[in-house]
Amino acid sequence: MPFFSVVIPLYNKENWIENTLKSVFNQDFTDFEIIIVNDGSTDKSEDIVMKFDDNRIKYFSKTNEGVSVARNFGIEKASGNYIAFLDADDMWFPNHIAALKS
Length: 102
What we know:
By secondary structure, the protein is of the alpha/beta class. It has 4 helices and 4 strands, in the order E-H-E-H-E-H-E-H. Helix content is about 30%, strand content about 25%. It starts with a strand and ends with a helix.
């Protein structure tokens, strides 16, 4: 069981999701899973996510119901001890998760 489940709701963020995911993979603390909930994107967001080959990624696609529903869906799929939310157009400094843990 991972320590953190990073829940990322995704809706039409093809210009940002790659850097967002890279910021998660560059964390000092690495005991996490990433739950990506594609909330009905109509752009190339899914294609970009699928280029990442990491078994910590759990990808789900659903019809658009809004960010709150996507976050709650991600929580339901999470298996970590703690939930960390990250928007698909945001980035973390490399020590973010370590700081949350301490």
